[in-house]
Design a protein that fits this description.
By secondary structure, the protein is an alpha+beta fold. The protein contains ten helices and 39 strands. Helix content is 18%, strand content 41%. Helix 5 crosses helix 7 and helix 6 packs across helix 7.
């Protein structure tokens, strides 16, 4: 009864706000919130009431003033729901610059779509969507709604601002829960703490923001900037779709996922016999696991299936075997079942597929990190990780989107947090060999060979899988020489030995070198691969996020016409820094200038005060690569 009175009080306050509504006239907003802003969040009240381990409500009341076209996205109304999340009480109103009501949006104007992602063969996820159409800026949009959760695994994080050039006049998160529910939170940035209130059997936490000026975007900043205020929430106990779990630690969360896998790795007898046929005669577990991985790739195709305990539970191995398709959960579970049939221990592991992965808080177990599932084969030599959704990856290859990321490996006794091995720069290579024949009129014939290995392999595979027309168009975009013609090209994928994608192309360029009297001025840069200088910034606020850990190896051989001599040979350069290493060398062999270039990029998060050094590193490289070879005709 005490909780009910508490909830009634909470929702009564929200209802009063709807009646009296804050004044939305733009002239009431301080100039500091308008400066550099495309939109202003006038108020954003989120009241989250966790009633039990299986029931929760979130009530939202929000108003945004759109100042110009660039702020339109901040005024979109979007809420997702499914069979376990029921929306109600949706109200949308539009106001003019003076805060006068223009119109109330009818329910039939709010679109309702299936949240189809282009790959899912089944999903019960849906979206309610409304885009305001207002001809005159500024205007304001106000909306309110309630989401009723019939069970949950995690509690949605609160992020009042997620776009640049958006200011906040007032925003608040009010979290209400009873004694029977134990909740944990982590708020960012450091020091953004809640006001705590305790009643007899109920508790309240309130985070509040006022007069937050707009954040401006910066080059190479983290995808999830630390300066944006956020609150992450997580329950210790939860109930969802008839299943109960414990998120108080990683081990207990792993036990819940393990319970969803029970009795779902049985294979048909015919498939067990096929496993024996594939693996018999192979001398070790590595070769057996590799052969079964290829069998998986040849038989199965990846589709997204958002079904089964809210998308947490995979389809059974028998069903996948029958249908020949599955999502990351189903294909991983199926591969683990194949390994099991061969007497090899395989493990199911949840991870994140994201090259610029948001911060991971090992000390804050929550259902906010993971969006992907992979397999780990425990072999005599080592643990080999396997990406089960790709039809083309080599066995044991984890692409840049997962390599180096945390993974919760699911054991019968619970979850164990590990890290997928990262791809270091020396294993992530793009090797380019360019041969150029320069003629007296400045035209040239060129041969280019690109080789993609290691962490660069997915880039090559993506291009290799395109149609010839798309491949040709992309090649023209990269070859940024003037007046160029591609004579022929071919892409090839070599799986044996060191897996690599290779592209060979022959092309002609009518204006490769510039003719200046009796001189030829020849560029020395691989086409299409100049290193852009990071933008200049007066005062850096955010850390520098570098996600690409890789190496480029380039060799350019320039053959020049008879009668010409080298008048100016560009200078060599060697630079070492915490952001990477760079070497550029020029040498002469007979009538050829040989250029070798090496660039190693380091991955990491660097403090903002390093930005000047980071920019200087690439300015130095860019300047070196803009050097020209000058040839002079000798009579």
């Amino acid at each position: 009864m005490q909780l009910n009175r508490f909830l009634f009080s909470c929702f009564f306050i929200m209802a009063v706000k709807l009646v009296i509504a804050q004044e939305l006239a733009l002239n009431l907003v301080p100039d500091s919130l308008k400066l550099n802003a495309n939109a202003i969040i006038r108020y954003y009240d989120n009241t989250t009431v966790v009633e039990s381990t299986t029931s929760m409500k979130i009530q939202v009341h929000k108003a945004v003033t759109i100042l110009n076209r660039n702020g339109e996205e901040a005024g979109l109304f979007i809420i997702g729901y499914d069979n376990h999340i029921i929306p109600s009480g949706i109200s949308i109103r539009i106001y003019d610059a003076e805060g006068k009501l223009l119109r109330k949006i009818r329910s039939d104007e709010i679109k309702d779509y299936s949240a189809y992602d282009g790959m899912s063969i089944y999903t019960d996820n849906r979206v309610k969507f409304y885009r305001p159409v207002v001809r005159k800026y500024p205007y304001s949009i106000e909306f309110s709604y309630t989401l009723h959760f019939k069970g949950y695994v995690g509690i949605p994080a609160w992020a009042p601002v997620t776009s640049f050039n958006t200011s906040i006049e007032h925003a608040a998160l009010r979290l209400k829960y009873s004694d029977q529910v134990n909740l944990r939170y982590k708020s960012l940035p450091e020091g953004f703490d809640p006001l705590k209130e305790d009643f007899k059997n109920d508790h309240s936490l309130t985070w509040e923001l006022r007069s937050l000026i707009p954040f401006k975007p910066e080059s190479y900043m983290p995808e999830d900037p630390e300066i944006w205020p956020r609150v992450f929430l997580s329950p210790d106990k939860f109930g969802y779709d008839g299943s109960e779990g414990d998120l108080s630690n990683w081990n207990s969360y792993g036990r819940w996922i393990a319970s969803l896998l029970e009795n779902r790795q049985e294979l048909p007898e015919e498939t067990k016999n096929k496993v024996a046929e594939i693996t018999n005669g192979l001398p070790d577990d590595y070769l057996k696991a590799e052969a079964l991985y290829r069998y998986l790739q040849e038989r199965m195709r990846y589709v997204s299936i958002q079904y089964g305990v809210g998308g947490f539970q995979p389809f059974s191995a028998k069903d996948v075997d029958k249908w020949n398709y599955g999502d990351c959960k189903a294909l991983t579970n199926y591969y683990v079942a194949l390994l099991k049939a061969a007497g090899i221990r395989g493990l199911y592991a949840v991870t994140v597929s994201d090259e610029g992965m948001p911060r991971f808080f090992e000390d804050f177990p929550a259902n906010i990190y993971f969006n992907h599932v992979v397999a780990a084969a425990l072999l005599d030599r080592d643990t080999v990780w396997a990406e089960c959704t790709s039809s083309y990856f080599p066995f044991g290859f984890m692409g840049p989107s997962t390599a180096g990321n945390p993974a919760l490996v699911i054991l019968p006794e619970g979850g164990k947090l590990l890290k997928i091995p990262k791809i270091n720069a020396n294993e992530s290579n793009l090797t380019r060999i360019l041969k150029v024949d320069v003629f007296t009129d400045g035209s040239s014939k060129l041969k280019l060979c690109n080789r993609f290995t290691g962490g660069k392999l997915p880039d090559g595979l993506k291009e290799w899988m395109e149609s010839p027309d798309v491949q040709k168009n992309n090649l023209y975009k990269n070859l940024d020489y003037r007046d160029i013609r591609i004579d022929n090209f071919v892409w090839d994928y070599k799986r044996e030995g060191i897996p690599m994608v290779v592209m060979n192309a022959d092309f002609s360029c009518n204006r490769f070198a510039s003719v200046a009297g009796d001189r030829l001025i020849v560029p020395t840069l691989i086409p299409g691969y100049s290193n852009k200088i990071p933008d200049a910034e007066d005062k850096r606020i955010n850390p520098i996020q570098l996600s690409d850990e890789s190496s480029d190896f380039d060799t350019i051989s320039i053959s020049y016409p008879s009668g010409y001599q080298i008048e100016q040979l560009p200078e060599n350069l060697s630079v070492k820094s915490e952001f990477g290493d760079y070497t550029l060398n020029f040498s002469v062999q007979n009538d050829n200038v040989i250029i070798t270039r090496y660039l190693k990029r380091e991955k990491g998060l660097f403090p903002p005060e390093k930005y000047i050094d980071f920019r200087e590193f690439y300015k130095t490289i860019n300047k070196a690569e803009r050097q020209k070879l000058v040839l002079k005709f000798q009579e």
